[in-house]
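Late entry, evening session. Most of the bench is empty. Finally got around to the prediction I had been postponing all week. Sequence below, unchanged from the version circulated by S.P.
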Amino acid sequence: MIHLEDYLDTLEALPMELQRQFTLMRELDALSQDIQEQMKQATEDFVANPPTKEDPRHVEYMNNFLQLFSTVLKHGEEKVALATQTYDLVDKHIRKLDEDLLKFEQRELTYPPRIMHSWGPGAAGSSGLDGSHQIDDGGAGDRRGGGRRAGLANGADDAGGRKK
């Protein structure tokens, strides 16, 4: 169980880190939406009152557009970087879980089982979960009416072709 405890310890901080990353992405989205509204307004102003090339406002409009586009692009790149970091963070945890699962499976295959089950290899003659000893001998020596023949309907053939 050491692997499980180690994994749970590393997993404990994951929800808070994911929440932080997604909150930052939402904030960048909100900033980008505001800038897009500013760009829309600036575009409408430019179209409504287009300056001539000689007009000094022409350079102002172009510089304003350039600054707004650059800011939106920067926010988009930051969001991509955050998404990549978030993906890498989750991928790291998935890889760790896969490694621990492999170690656990290898350990379980090399050690004998700790609990004897009433099913599976070596189950005949073993103690059941309720503490009773059941041996399925096909119903021949079963005085309680259990075993293989208990499930057969009246008059049905058993495995040996005999009528009940």
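Two things to note before I forget:
The two ends are 51 Å apart (CA to CA).
The longest helix spans residues 56-110.
Will write this up properly tomorrow.
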